[in-house]
């Protein structure tokens, strides 16, 4: 008002795994103007519709601003004391595995680190899992098998340099729009795009080639590609000889099936000429990046899909080179940070597994002799254990499993009968909050202060633009207060997020504990350095310059330094369609909403894209059951029923339907699609098969 310039605060978008830099200017209380941060390497000033409407989501309507026990507002000491007492009593009576934390890729790395330290180190259970289980777990397992550690080899610059980009189950135009724009810009110089997706998504619509494969046939397709590359002599035998194990066993596995293009095309439901065009493009293009995301990961064969993609790149030596890599794109803003700090039930902090030496080292670092010696329950198993009573107290942080888990109706049943449910969230009225015995108010984006890691391993700061409203606190601080009330205060006594970050980075360098995720260059950052931390890609050595690209020397993180090609066989969907449920239900995001809409639902502009839940169906399938455009339509599976508006489109493959994942009780409870999803999971990763559930539809 006085004409003085308000300084912009540089922070990071809270939505997808692109991790765009945002420049925010607070005009007045709870009013914010945002623009893309031109200095952030992930987006160079661009923002998508979600990022550019962040200013409309920072109001206080709907916020949880006070701790609550039942419907009674209480102070922090009473709330934290009750949580500590009930968890301690449950552990004393039933053991540490009778409690669990279910956390979120929305948490900052500091939050994740503290939650993991409390559960794995001081409670002594592995029962902490993250909603990244629903998103990334299959890629994590594939990376570990092939590379020896959960390492994403490439960087966004590779997307600029590639001559061919393969989108494998990845509708980047909607899910990672800023990256997609970046690649679109490269098409002017001749970059080619191939989209592998049952739906003709916006990404597929403008691609040079769209392969609308049958559901869950990705392994068949990628194995067929590898067989074709071998057949035409388009693999890199010297790279394999020097750097790769397992090629012979993969060849032997390929020989178990007819890998002729005609057979592969028939099994995948593809046009033979299109398939051969793809094989030729891949063979001819050394600078190929294969992006894979939820369409690959969310499958009972998710790990095999990832490995089949990695096999094609390892066999051709297309890894660790500019413009050439397999590239798992994360869904959430800090899915990667959770993987780093041990937010998954089957990993320890610093990318360690539960090998006895690693458990002992982490326990020494924490001074926590009770550190869990074994993994905990993964998300689907965790809620099943809540349902059958093995888990008697659960704390859900910054996520909404009553909507987002598969078979979400059963998850709601589990939470309803759980003896003690704690939910910490910034919003007061989510589907999950309805089951909370204790509600803990957490900071929202714009108030939080800490770090996140995006898909290219780039650590960026989220910085606070507003003071904490009401009694809301940072997640790491809430967890530390409960830990203190449980008697672990000495190990949870940080004053600020920079202190947590310093401890976390020391852990990555402790006794050379983390060979892959070394942040030694960030150890001992001063508060000022932490405040000013510029985006940097891990590993971070003494020069603090970071590491854009991994495996450039052909050495991997396995004991012998060689990558592993792993034989994988195509199995198709976990549950086949049948006459009662003849359609394959596929679920996913839409362009302008995020997860369960607790934030994006606040931005009026974002509703224009899709104002109500819908089901996409091919016109011929719709005609067969009397469904017409725009009618209310019942979608049913063996797990439940949802109601949505029919959208008839030939972008949908015949025999398949698509529903978005976002709708909740606040906006349209009958549109909650995850109520329909069977909890079939990948046996290794535990990731559910969100992309295929047998279903039928009828006009309502
Ligand atoms: Fe960038 Fe993703 Fe945020 Fe869009 S949602 S601005 S692409 S980080």
Automatic annotation (TrEMBL):
It comes from Phenylobacterium ferrooxidans. Residues 6-62 form the 4Fe-4S Mo/W bis-MGD-type domain. Transmembrane segments: none annotated. The chain holds residues 2 to 701 of 891 of the full protein. The keyword Glycoprotein does not apply. Keywords: 4Fe-4S, Iron, Iron-sulfur, Metal-binding, Molybdenum, Nitrate assimilation, Oxidoreductase. It comes from the Bacteria. Belongs to the prokaryotic molybdopterin-containing oxidoreductase family. NasA/NapA/NarB subfamily. This is Molybdopterin-dependent oxidoreductase. Its cofactor is Mo-bis(molybdopterin guanine dinucleotide); [4Fe-4S] cluster.
